[in-house]
Amino acid sequence: MGIHRLNHAVLYVSDLARSVAFYRDVLGFRQIPMTPDGFRGAAFLQAPGSTNDHDLGLFEVGQGARRSAAGRGTVGLYHLAWEVDTLDELAVTAERLAAAGALVGTSDHGTTKSLYGQDPDGLEFEVVWLVPADRLDDAALAARKRIGRLDLAAERRRYGGQTRGGVGISVPA
């Protein structure tokens, strides 16, 4: 018996409505009506195309909550990574994050092409496209040992904007 994927994440947020709006409007999550009756201050969201019951739970702790200091002054989770199917989807996500002022970085890890964002409470996340197993070459594998600058236009020319990522890696071939 082994763990084979992340089913969902639960985050503490300062303003539930603001966080729901961010994950809905910027990343395309949809709110799932599963909050227990009489329970306030929680929301459950499902990622686009997900078959999970929910992918993200948000629990409001109030406006007085401070931003996360994980990695800067305390231990804690650095980020979660969500996978997209195509480089075209990654490009659209980059545009949406940038428009929301939430894109904080990009990276080329050789076998993965990554965007980094922060939600309204400063919680960091990654959105990633994985090079399909049959497209992995020596250059991509060697590049895992460095963090390079992501040139999304060049990656789309190299792999194709509609090439399904993760095939043979995180998606069965």
Fold and architecture overview:
It is a single chain. The protein is an alpha/beta fold and 173 residues long. Helices cover 21% and strands 24% of the residues. The chain is built from 4 helices and 8 strands. The strands form 2 sheets. The protein has a 4-stranded mixed β-sheet with strand order 1-4-3-2, covered by helices on one side. Strands 5-8-7-6 form a 4-stranded mixed β-sheet, with helices on one face. Strand 7 (112-118) and strand 8 form a beta hairpin. Helix 2 (87-99) packs antiparallel against helix 4. The radius of gyration is 17 Å and the shape is globular. The two termini are 22 Å apart. The mean pLDDT is 92.
Q: How many strands, which pairing sense, and closed or not: the largest β-sheet?
A: 4 strands, mixed
Helix content: 10-25%
Q: How much of the residues is beta strand, in percent?
A: 15-25%
Number of helices: 4
- What is the terminal-to-terminal distance? 22 Å
Mean pLDDT: 92
The shape is: globular
The H-and-E topology, N to C, reads as EHEEEEHEEEHH
Find the count of extended strands (DSSP E, 2+ residues): 8
